[in-house]
Amino acid sequence: MYHLSLQGSTSTSDIYIGAGVFQQTAKRVAEKFKPARIHVVTDSNVAPLYLKELCAEFPLNITTTVIPAGEEYKNLDTVAGIYADMSKAELTRSDLVIALGGGVVGDITGFAAATYLRGIHVCQIPTTLLSQVDSSVGGKTGVDLPQGKNLVGAFYQPELVMIDTDILTSLPERIFNDGMAEVIKYGCISNPTILELIAEPDFKSNMEQIVYESVRIKRDVVQQDEHDTGLRMILNFGHTIGHAAEKVGHFTELSHGQAVAIGMVQAAKLGAALGEADLTEQIVAACKAHDLPTELPYPTEDIYTALLHDKKRTADTMNFILVHPLGKAVIHKIPLEQLHQLITAL
Protein backbone atom coordinates (compact mmCIF):
# COMPACT_ATOMS: atom_id res chain seq x y z
CA MET A 1 0.00 0.00 0.00
CA TYR A 2 1.13 3.53 -0.77
CA HIS A 3 0.38 6.66 1.24
CA LEU A 4 0.65 10.21 -0.10
CA SER A 5 -0.14 13.51 1.59
CA LEU A 6 -1.27 16.58 -0.30
CA GLN A 7 -0.91 19.79 1.66
CA GLY A 8 -3.66 22.17 0.59
CA SER A 9 -4.16 25.75 1.67
CA THR A 10 -6.69 24.84 4.36
CA SER A 11 -6.29 21.10 4.97
CA THR A 12 -4.15 18.03 4.34
CA SER A 13 -5.42 15.33 2.03
CA ASP A 14 -4.34 11.80 3.01
CA ILE A 15 -4.35 9.46 0.01
CA TYR A 16 -4.15 5.68 0.43
CA ILE A 17 -3.50 3.53 -2.65
CA GLY A 18 -3.46 -0.23 -2.83
CA ALA A 19 -5.28 -3.56 -2.95
CA GLY A 20 -7.93 -3.92 -0.25
CA VAL A 21 -7.92 -0.26 0.81
CA PHE A 22 -11.72 -0.15 0.58
CA GLN A 23 -12.03 -2.43 3.61
CA GLN A 24 -9.95 0.03 5.64
CA THR A 25 -12.30 2.97 5.11
CA ALA A 26 -13.92 2.98 8.57
CA LYS A 27 -10.52 2.70 10.25
CA ARG A 28 -9.07 5.63 8.30
CA VAL A 29 -12.21 7.71 8.85
CA ALA A 30 -11.95 7.14 12.61
CA GLU A 31 -8.30 8.26 12.52
CA LYS A 32 -9.13 11.44 10.63
CA PHE A 33 -12.64 12.54 11.67
CA LYS A 34 -15.09 12.46 14.55
CA PRO A 35 -18.45 12.59 12.75
CA ALA A 36 -21.78 12.00 14.44
CA ARG A 37 -23.35 11.36 11.03
CA ILE A 38 -22.07 10.12 7.68
CA HIS A 39 -23.82 10.70 4.37
CA VAL A 40 -22.78 8.66 1.32
CA VAL A 41 -23.43 9.84 -2.23
CA THR A 42 -23.17 7.24 -4.97
CA ASP A 43 -24.85 6.45 -8.28
CA SER A 44 -27.19 3.83 -9.66
CA ASN A 45 -24.33 1.79 -11.13
CA VAL A 46 -22.12 1.68 -8.04
CA ALA A 47 -24.77 1.40 -5.31
CA PRO A 48 -25.64 -2.27 -5.98
CA LEU A 49 -21.94 -3.20 -5.94
CA TYR A 50 -20.42 -1.40 -2.97
CA LEU A 51 -22.89 0.70 -0.97
CA LYS A 52 -24.09 -2.01 1.41
CA GLU A 53 -20.51 -3.18 2.06
CA LEU A 54 -19.35 0.35 2.83
CA CYS A 55 -22.23 1.11 5.19
CA ALA A 56 -21.62 -2.14 7.07
CA GLU A 57 -18.11 -0.95 8.01
CA PHE A 58 -19.45 1.80 10.27
CA PRO A 59 -21.17 1.61 13.66
CA LEU A 60 -23.14 4.76 12.78
CA ASN A 61 -26.42 4.96 10.93
CA ILE A 62 -25.49 5.97 7.38
CA THR A 63 -27.76 8.08 5.20
CA THR A 64 -27.43 7.95 1.43
CA THR A 65 -28.18 9.65 -1.86
CA VAL A 66 -28.20 7.54 -5.01
CA ILE A 67 -28.08 9.70 -8.13
CA PRO A 68 -28.67 8.51 -11.71
CA ALA A 69 -25.44 7.41 -13.40
CA GLY A 70 -24.15 9.54 -16.27
CA GLU A 71 -22.49 12.86 -17.11
CA GLU A 72 -25.86 14.26 -18.21
CA TYR A 73 -26.90 14.27 -14.52
CA LYS A 74 -23.87 16.28 -13.41
CA ASN A 75 -25.87 19.47 -12.99
CA LEU A 76 -27.31 21.85 -10.42
CA ASP A 77 -30.62 19.98 -10.25
CA THR A 78 -28.79 16.92 -8.97
CA VAL A 79 -26.88 19.06 -6.46
CA ALA A 80 -30.18 20.40 -5.16
CA GLY A 81 -31.34 16.84 -4.51
CA ILE A 82 -28.15 16.08 -2.57
CA TYR A 83 -28.62 19.27 -0.51
CA ALA A 84 -32.16 18.17 0.32
CA ASP A 85 -30.97 14.74 1.48
CA MET A 86 -28.17 16.23 3.60
CA SER A 87 -30.63 18.63 5.19
CA LYS A 88 -33.05 15.80 5.93
CA ALA A 89 -30.17 13.86 7.53
CA GLU A 90 -29.43 16.92 9.71
CA LEU A 91 -25.76 17.01 8.78
CA THR A 92 -23.59 19.54 10.58
CA ARG A 93 -20.19 20.93 9.65
CA SER A 94 -18.50 18.37 11.90
CA ASP A 95 -20.05 15.47 9.98
CA LEU A 96 -18.72 13.64 6.93
CA VAL A 97 -19.81 13.20 3.32
CA ILE A 98 -18.39 10.25 1.36
CA ALA A 99 -18.32 10.20 -2.45
CA LEU A 100 -18.49 6.58 -3.60
CA GLY A 101 -18.21 6.31 -7.37
CA GLY A 102 -16.53 7.56 -10.49
CA GLY A 103 -15.64 11.04 -11.65
CA VAL A 104 -19.18 12.37 -11.89
CA VAL A 105 -20.04 11.27 -8.35
CA GLY A 106 -16.76 12.64 -7.02
CA ASP A 107 -17.11 16.02 -8.73
CA ILE A 108 -20.74 16.58 -7.79
CA THR A 109 -20.38 15.31 -4.21
CA GLY A 110 -17.28 17.39 -3.66
CA PHE A 111 -19.14 20.48 -4.86
CA ALA A 112 -22.14 19.73 -2.64
CA ALA A 113 -19.83 19.23 0.37
CA ALA A 114 -17.92 22.43 -0.41
CA THR A 115 -21.07 24.54 -0.53
CA TYR A 116 -23.51 22.99 1.95
CA LEU A 117 -23.14 24.88 5.26
CA ARG A 118 -20.13 26.49 3.53
CA GLY A 119 -18.16 23.29 3.86
CA ILE A 120 -18.44 19.76 5.27
CA HIS A 121 -15.63 17.22 5.58
CA VAL A 122 -15.44 15.00 2.50
CA CYS A 123 -13.87 11.62 1.73
CA GLN A 124 -13.45 10.33 -1.82
CA ILE A 125 -13.68 6.61 -2.64
CA PRO A 126 -13.12 6.46 -6.42
CA THR A 127 -14.40 3.32 -8.15
CA THR A 128 -13.14 3.85 -11.72
CA LEU A 129 -9.59 4.10 -13.03
CA LEU A 130 -10.29 7.61 -14.31
CA SER A 131 -11.44 8.84 -10.92
CA GLN A 132 -8.62 7.02 -9.11
CA VAL A 133 -5.81 8.62 -11.11
CA ASP A 134 -7.39 12.01 -11.66
CA SER A 135 -10.65 13.47 -10.41
CA SER A 136 -10.63 12.17 -6.81
CA VAL A 137 -7.35 13.96 -6.03
CA GLY A 138 -6.64 17.68 -6.02
CA GLY A 139 -9.85 19.30 -4.85
CA LYS A 140 -11.46 20.37 -8.12
CA THR A 141 -15.21 19.97 -7.78
CA GLY A 142 -18.02 21.10 -10.03
CA VAL A 143 -20.98 20.58 -12.31
CA ASP A 144 -21.79 21.26 -15.93
CA LEU A 145 -23.97 23.96 -17.44
CA PRO A 146 -25.63 23.84 -20.87
CA GLN A 147 -22.90 26.27 -21.96
CA GLY A 148 -20.02 23.96 -21.04
CA LYS A 149 -18.33 21.46 -18.75
CA ASN A 150 -17.41 22.21 -15.12
CA LEU A 151 -18.34 25.88 -15.37
CA VAL A 152 -19.69 25.94 -11.79
CA GLY A 153 -17.43 24.60 -9.08
CA ALA A 154 -15.08 25.12 -6.18
CA PHE A 155 -11.60 24.15 -5.03
CA TYR A 156 -12.22 21.94 -2.01
CA GLN A 157 -9.73 19.30 -0.94
CA PRO A 158 -11.00 15.90 0.20
CA GLU A 159 -9.30 15.22 3.51
CA LEU A 160 -9.27 11.49 2.82
CA VAL A 161 -8.99 9.55 -0.45
CA MET A 162 -9.24 5.75 -0.46
CA ILE A 163 -8.03 4.25 -3.76
CA ASP A 164 -8.56 0.50 -3.90
CA THR A 165 -6.89 -0.96 -6.99
CA ASP A 166 -8.73 -4.29 -6.49
CA ILE A 167 -11.90 -2.51 -7.61
CA LEU A 168 -10.37 -2.07 -11.07
CA THR A 169 -10.57 -5.82 -11.73
CA SER A 170 -14.37 -5.65 -11.78
CA LEU A 171 -14.61 -2.78 -14.27
CA PRO A 172 -15.97 -3.40 -17.78
CA GLU A 173 -13.17 -3.06 -20.33
CA ARG A 174 -14.75 0.06 -21.81
CA ILE A 175 -14.77 1.85 -18.43
CA PHE A 176 -11.23 0.70 -17.64
CA ASN A 177 -9.95 1.97 -20.99
CA ASP A 178 -11.66 5.29 -20.34
CA GLY A 179 -9.33 5.81 -17.40
CA MET A 180 -6.30 4.82 -19.44
CA ALA A 181 -6.65 8.13 -21.30
CA GLU A 182 -5.72 9.98 -18.10
CA VAL A 183 -2.87 7.55 -17.42
CA ILE A 184 -1.52 8.22 -20.93
CA LYS A 185 -1.83 11.94 -20.19
CA TYR A 186 0.50 11.64 -17.18
CA GLY A 187 3.02 9.77 -19.28
CA CYS A 188 2.91 12.53 -21.88
CA ILE A 189 3.18 15.52 -19.53
CA SER A 190 5.58 14.22 -16.89
CA ASN A 191 6.83 10.62 -16.84
CA PRO A 192 7.24 8.70 -20.13
CA THR A 193 8.09 5.59 -18.10
CA ILE A 194 4.34 5.27 -17.51
CA LEU A 195 3.88 4.81 -21.27
CA GLU A 196 6.45 2.01 -21.18
CA LEU A 197 4.67 0.33 -18.24
CA ILE A 198 1.26 0.33 -19.94
CA ALA A 199 2.77 -1.00 -23.18
CA GLU A 200 3.67 -4.26 -21.44
CA PRO A 201 1.30 -7.18 -22.20
CA ASP A 202 0.74 -7.85 -18.49
CA PHE A 203 0.50 -4.19 -17.40
CA LYS A 204 -2.71 -4.85 -15.45
CA SER A 205 -0.73 -6.85 -12.92
CA ASN A 206 1.16 -3.64 -12.13
CA MET A 207 -1.81 -1.29 -11.66
CA GLU A 208 -0.92 -0.36 -8.10
CA GLN A 209 2.35 1.22 -9.26
CA ILE A 210 0.73 2.79 -12.34
CA VAL A 211 -2.01 4.39 -10.24
CA TYR A 212 0.52 5.53 -7.64
CA GLU A 213 2.80 7.13 -10.24
CA SER A 214 -0.16 8.95 -11.81
CA VAL A 215 -1.48 10.23 -8.48
CA ARG A 216 2.01 11.24 -7.35
CA ILE A 217 2.39 13.45 -10.42
CA LYS A 218 -0.94 15.11 -9.77
CA ARG A 219 -0.13 15.56 -6.06
CA ASP A 220 3.19 17.23 -6.90
CA VAL A 221 1.58 19.61 -9.39
CA VAL A 222 -1.39 20.54 -7.16
CA GLN A 223 0.86 21.27 -4.16
CA GLN A 224 2.65 23.87 -6.27
CA ASP A 225 -0.52 25.38 -7.80
CA GLU A 226 -3.64 24.40 -5.90
CA HIS A 227 -5.93 26.94 -7.54
CA ASP A 228 -5.02 26.37 -11.19
CA THR A 229 -3.39 29.72 -11.95
CA GLY A 230 -0.24 28.37 -13.62
CA LEU A 231 1.47 24.99 -13.48
CA ARG A 232 -1.73 23.03 -12.73
CA MET A 233 -2.97 23.88 -16.22
CA ILE A 234 -0.63 21.21 -17.60
CA LEU A 235 -3.00 18.58 -16.14
CA ASN A 236 -5.46 19.74 -18.80
CA PHE A 237 -3.42 18.34 -21.69
CA GLY A 238 -6.02 16.99 -24.11
CA HIS A 239 -8.87 18.53 -22.15
CA THR A 240 -9.39 21.79 -24.04
CA ILE A 241 -10.49 20.09 -27.25
CA GLY A 242 -11.73 17.11 -25.23
CA HIS A 243 -14.18 19.15 -23.16
CA ALA A 244 -15.35 20.91 -26.32
CA ALA A 245 -16.02 17.55 -27.97
CA GLU A 246 -17.99 16.39 -24.92
CA LYS A 247 -20.13 19.51 -25.12
CA VAL A 248 -20.75 19.16 -28.86
CA GLY A 249 -21.77 15.56 -28.16
CA HIS A 250 -24.23 16.73 -25.49
CA PHE A 251 -22.20 14.95 -22.78
CA THR A 252 -23.67 11.62 -23.89
CA GLU A 253 -21.96 10.63 -27.16
CA LEU A 254 -18.37 10.54 -25.86
CA SER A 255 -17.12 9.47 -22.45
CA HIS A 256 -14.63 11.77 -20.74
CA GLY A 257 -11.71 9.44 -21.40
CA GLN A 258 -12.62 9.07 -25.06
CA ALA A 259 -12.82 12.85 -25.40
CA VAL A 260 -9.45 13.34 -23.68
CA ALA A 261 -7.81 10.76 -25.96
CA ILE A 262 -9.12 12.61 -29.01
CA GLY A 263 -8.05 15.90 -27.45
CA MET A 264 -4.48 14.73 -26.82
CA VAL A 265 -4.08 13.59 -30.42
CA GLN A 266 -5.46 16.87 -31.77
CA ALA A 267 -3.23 18.83 -29.39
CA ALA A 268 -0.22 16.92 -30.76
CA LYS A 269 -1.26 17.85 -34.31
CA LEU A 270 -1.73 21.46 -33.25
CA GLY A 271 1.72 21.49 -31.63
CA ALA A 272 3.28 20.17 -34.84
CA ALA A 273 1.53 22.95 -36.77
CA LEU A 274 3.16 25.45 -34.39
CA GLY A 275 6.59 24.02 -35.15
CA GLU A 276 6.99 21.69 -32.18
CA ALA A 277 8.11 18.07 -32.48
CA ASP A 278 5.30 15.95 -33.94
CA LEU A 279 4.28 13.44 -31.27
CA THR A 280 1.03 12.52 -32.98
CA GLU A 281 2.09 9.02 -34.02
CA GLN A 282 3.26 8.06 -30.51
CA ILE A 283 0.11 9.35 -28.81
CA VAL A 284 -2.16 7.72 -31.41
CA ALA A 285 -0.39 4.38 -30.85
CA ALA A 286 -0.77 4.63 -27.06
CA CYS A 287 -4.47 5.46 -27.35
CA LYS A 288 -5.26 2.79 -29.93
CA ALA A 289 -3.49 0.15 -27.81
CA HIS A 290 -6.24 0.76 -25.24
CA ASP A 291 -9.13 1.00 -27.69
CA LEU A 292 -9.46 4.76 -27.38
CA PRO A 293 -10.60 6.93 -30.29
CA THR A 294 -8.21 9.40 -31.89
CA GLU A 295 -10.21 11.26 -34.55
CA LEU A 296 -12.60 14.17 -34.06
CA PRO A 297 -16.16 13.00 -34.85
CA TYR A 298 -17.53 16.56 -35.09
CA PRO A 299 -17.01 19.58 -37.38
CA THR A 300 -13.99 21.59 -36.27
CA GLU A 301 -16.00 24.83 -36.40
CA ASP A 302 -18.35 23.39 -33.76
CA ILE A 303 -15.35 22.39 -31.64
CA TYR A 304 -13.89 25.90 -31.82
CA THR A 305 -17.18 27.50 -30.83
CA ALA A 306 -17.52 25.15 -27.86
CA LEU A 307 -14.00 25.68 -26.56
CA LEU A 308 -14.51 29.45 -26.35
CA HIS A 309 -16.14 28.72 -22.98
CA ASP A 310 -13.03 26.92 -21.70
CA LYS A 311 -11.78 28.14 -18.31
CA LYS A 312 -8.24 28.52 -19.68
CA ARG A 313 -9.38 31.35 -21.94
CA THR A 314 -8.19 34.81 -20.97
CA ALA A 315 -9.75 37.67 -22.97
CA ASP A 316 -8.58 37.11 -26.56
CA THR A 317 -6.10 34.28 -25.92
CA MET A 318 -6.28 30.64 -24.85
CA ASN A 319 -3.81 28.90 -22.56
CA PHE A 320 -3.32 25.72 -24.58
CA ILE A 321 -1.33 22.79 -23.22
CA LEU A 322 1.22 21.20 -25.55
CA VAL A 323 3.86 18.52 -24.99
CA HIS A 324 7.45 18.77 -26.17
CA PRO A 325 9.44 16.66 -25.73
CA LEU A 326 7.48 13.66 -24.44
CA GLY A 327 7.37 14.01 -20.66
CA LYS A 328 7.34 17.81 -20.58
CA ALA A 329 4.21 19.94 -20.85
CA VAL A 330 4.21 23.63 -21.68
CA ILE A 331 1.52 26.29 -21.62
CA HIS A 332 1.16 28.15 -24.92
CA LYS A 333 -0.78 31.39 -25.05
CA ILE A 334 -2.45 31.26 -28.46
CA PRO A 335 -4.45 34.23 -29.79
CA LEU A 336 -8.02 33.16 -30.49
CA GLU A 337 -7.80 34.16 -34.15
CA GLN A 338 -4.76 31.93 -34.64
CA LEU A 339 -6.36 29.15 -32.61
CA HIS A 340 -9.41 29.32 -34.87
CA GLN A 341 -7.20 28.77 -37.89
CA LEU A 342 -5.34 25.90 -36.23
CA ILE A 343 -8.50 24.14 -35.03
CA THR A 344 -10.31 24.37 -38.35
CA ALA A 345 -7.21 22.96 -40.09
CA LEU A 346 -7.20 19.78 -37.98
Automatic annotation (TrEMBL):
Keywords: Amino-acid biosynthesis, Aromatic amino acid biosynthesis, Cobalt, Cytoplasm, Lyase, Metal-binding, NAD, Nucleotide-binding, Zinc
InterPro entries per UniProt: Dehydroquinate_synthase, DHQ_synth_AroB, DHQ_synth_fam, DHQS/DOIS_N, DHQS_C
Cofactor: Zn(2+); Co(2+); NAD(+)
Enzyme class: lyase
Note on cofactor: Binds 1 divalent metal cation per subunit. Can use either Co(2+) or Zn(2+).
Record-stated family: Belongs to the sugar phosphate cyclases superfamily. Dehydroquinate synthase family.
HAMAP family: DHQ_synthase
Protein name: 3-dehydroquinate synthase
Source organism (scientific name): Butyricicoccus porcorum
Lineage: Bacteria, Bacillati, Bacillota, Clostridia, Eubacteriales
Protein encoded by which gene: aroB
